[in-house]
């Protein structure tokens, strides 16, 4: 089986997607979930969280020294976020494409940020930027027991199994 599957994308690849406080306030949660379902990815974890400063500083540990970090912290702790884990082949890279450029000015129409935002300080959604980042962020936000391995009844229509 290993020989057969090596070189094929990992169908169990996972990424962390979060609807940020502006997205929740603007009632965009459903539309964002819809895009990932429609694409064919599988939702394996979902919760609403009021983020603490401590959790945020672990999540954005590479940005703590940036001049915009205090305003990022204020934004991200201003209200609940909806945090999700999505699974499927190349989900990390594909989600980044679906979410669009960090700066909405640069984001293509058709991406979440390109369709719903105009400024980097309120860009609606988070998506892990690498496999390693995704692993780290999923562990930070979720306990293993809260991620569900469930069989999709029509998986054969999404990918060869
Ligand atoms: P990403 O969210 O596309 O991965 P990062 O560079 O990791 O981009 O930045 C994390 C978040 O920090 C961005 O999504 C955005 O909310 C915020 N951010 C990044 N750069 C700026 C900035 O120059 N001003 C204000 N907020 C910023």
Automatic annotation (TrEMBL):
Domain Nucleoside diphosphate kinase-like: 12-149
Required cofactor(s): Mg(2+)
Gene Ontology BP annotations: CTP biosynthetic process; GTP biosynthetic process; UTP biosynthetic process
Entry annotation: catalytic residues: 126 (pros-phosphohistidine intermediate)
Localization (cell): Cell projection, Lamellipodium; Cell projection, Ruffle; Cytoplasm; Mitochondrion intermembrane space
Residues where ATP binds: 20, 68, 96, 102, 113, 123
Topology in membrane: Peripheral membrane protein
EC identifiers of the protein: 2.7.4.6
Chief place of localization: other
Stored SMART domains: NDK
Top EC class of this enzyme: transferase
PROSITE patterns, per database record: NDPK, NDPK_LIKE
Any GO molecular function: ATP binding
Record's GO cellular component terms: lamellipodium; mitochondrial intermembrane space; mitochondrial matrix; nucleus; ruffle
Catalytic activity: a 2'-deoxyribonucleoside 5'-diphosphate + ATP = a 2'-deoxyribonucleoside 5'-triphosphate + ADP; a ribonucleoside 5'-diphosphate + ATP = a ribonucleoside 5'-triphosphate + ADP
Entry-linked InterPro entries: NDK-like_dom, NDK-like_dom_sf, Nucleoside_diP_kinase, Nucleoside_diP_kinase_AS
Keywords: ATP-binding, Cell cycle, Cell projection, Cytoplasm, Kinase, Magnesium, Metal-binding, Nucleotide metabolism, Nucleotide-binding, Nucleus, Transferase
Cross-referenced Gene3D superfamilies: Nucleoside diphosphate kinase-like domain
Biological role: Major role in the synthesis of nucleoside triphosphates other than ATP.
NCBIfam families: PRK00668.1
Family: Belongs to the NDK family.
Official protein name in the record: Nucleoside diphosphate kinase
Native organism: Maylandia zebra (zebra mbuna)
């Amino acid at each position: 089986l290993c020989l057969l599957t090596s070189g094929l994308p990992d169908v169990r690849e996972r990424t962390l997607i979060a609807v940020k406080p502006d997205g929740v306030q603007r009632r965009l949660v459903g539309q964002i979930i819809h895009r990932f379902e429609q694409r064919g990815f599988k939702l394996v974890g979902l919760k609403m969280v009021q983020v603490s400063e401590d959790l945020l500083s672990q999540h954005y540990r590479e940005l703590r020294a940036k001049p915009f970090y205090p305003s990022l912290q204020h934004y991200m702790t201003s209200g609940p976020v909806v945090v999700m884990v999505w699974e499927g082949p190349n989900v990390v890279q594909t989600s980044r494409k679906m979410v669009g450029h960090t700066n909405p000015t640069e984001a293509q129409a058709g991406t979440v940020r390109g369709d719903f935002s105009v400024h980097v300080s309120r860009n609606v959604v988070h998506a892990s930027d690498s496999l390693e980042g995704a692993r780290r962020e999923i562990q930070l936000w979720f306990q293993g027991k809260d991620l569900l391995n469930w069989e999709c009844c029509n998986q054969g229509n999404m990918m060869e199994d």
